[in-house]
Amino acid sequence: MEKELYKEMFELEKGYWWHIGRKKLVSELIKRHFGNHRISILDFGCGTGATMQSLESHGEVIGVDTSREAINFCTARGMTNAIKISAQSGLKRSIKRKFDLITALDVIEHIKDDQKTLMELGSLLKEKGSIIITVPAYPFLWSYWDEYAHHKRRYTARSLRKLLEKSGFKVVKLSYFYSFILPAVMLMRIAKSKSRPGRNSDFVKFPKAINSLMIRISGIERQLLKSFRIPFGLSVVCLAEKV
Q1: Cα–Cα dist 54/23, whole Å
Q2: Which residues span the domain enclosing 234?
Q3: I need a surface site. Which of 40, 109, 140, 175 has the fewest CB within 10 A?
Q4: Model pTM?
Q5: Cβ atoms of residues 117 and 90 within 8 Å
Q6: Domain count, the chain
């Protein structure tokens, strides 16, 4: 990921609707799956640390990232439980324990061999441990943004399910998310692609009232997800168990 995106993430994660909605979605999935039990969590690709802070309400959290910039921002946020790991050394050499839950939120699309990484993550889970993953949806939405963010691919719900099953997981919950914003993002990316936006971020800074509205709308989607699978959206979210 481009270095300047870490700074933007650090500034936006606490209050921006996208990050708020994702953190609340993950928290609700954890509560429904684990109840009120305190659990051990590995936040794989922890970024600038705001998600780690929200996960601490569910138990003990360790974050790992390959980026020194990300770890520095975690430290600036007051997080002392974030560790820099080497992409070459492998997770097993860096992490010497097992966890109840691993989160990989908008991470595996950055990794060349996503199946190998998921199998390594599975080896760090306790028996019947779980993983929560979010990824960008639809290969046809590939754009300048994916190149700027150093993505390797985008996913469909079907392709993510197949990947997880091949990697030793059983899917418990799988759905699209952020359906309400999908048409607007499609139009924006088409327009920006034609105007050659260069390194402009897709995280549009809305006025406070609109940002609050987006948070409320994403809350409606989370309520729907308790009973239904959303058939389309800008992201794919999955909770899966190690088998």
Answers
A1: 7
A2: 3-242
A3: 140
A4: 0.93
A5: no
A6: 1
